[in-house]
Amino acid sequence: MENLVSFSALALLVFSVLWGVSTRYIFESPAIWTTELSGILFTWVVYIGAMTAFRDGKHIRVTLFIDIMPTPVRRALIKFGDICVLGFLLYLTYLSVLMMQKGATRPSPVLDIPFSLVYLATVICFAGMSVISALRIFGVLSNPQVDPAEDVL
To answer: 20, 35 in Cβ contact below 8 A?
Structure first.
């Protein structure tokens, strides 16, 4: 589902940018709404894409310290790190909800839509990441397998 949202936002983003460029340079009558729409759609693409990358285990990680530890210590450190990540994601979800509530009273300058629709992407992203993280901690969802060839710099 998130891929559909992200790809749709990306397709609309490309259309918006192309329309803005063509109206500015070909028709010499710029469509001013395209810049604002592009910024809103870019926000959605980035945050929904970040959630997808988190689900698929594609975010950067540095494991040098953990890799040299004995197996029991390594497992404990990984579990501790997962719990810290979950706490951080829950806090970001809370902050995103506050930001979305404040944005409900502020309309965008050109399209006149509430900024809460823009900030909704952050709430979905961090709440989704929190759920994924919690499911991994409780063993309901397994950690994604990382290709060792991708893990080498």
So the answer is: yes
Quickly count helices (H) and strands (E) in the chain.
Answer: 5, 0
Rounded-to-integer distance, Cα 129 and Cα 55, Å: 7
Q: Contact, 57 vs 144, CB < 8 A? A: yes
CA-CA distance, 98 to 15, in Å (whole number)?
Answer: 31
* pTM for the whole structure: 0.85
Give residue-wise pLDDT tens across range 94-151. Answer: 999 999 999 989 999 999 999 999 999 999 999 999 999 999 999 887 777 666 565 5
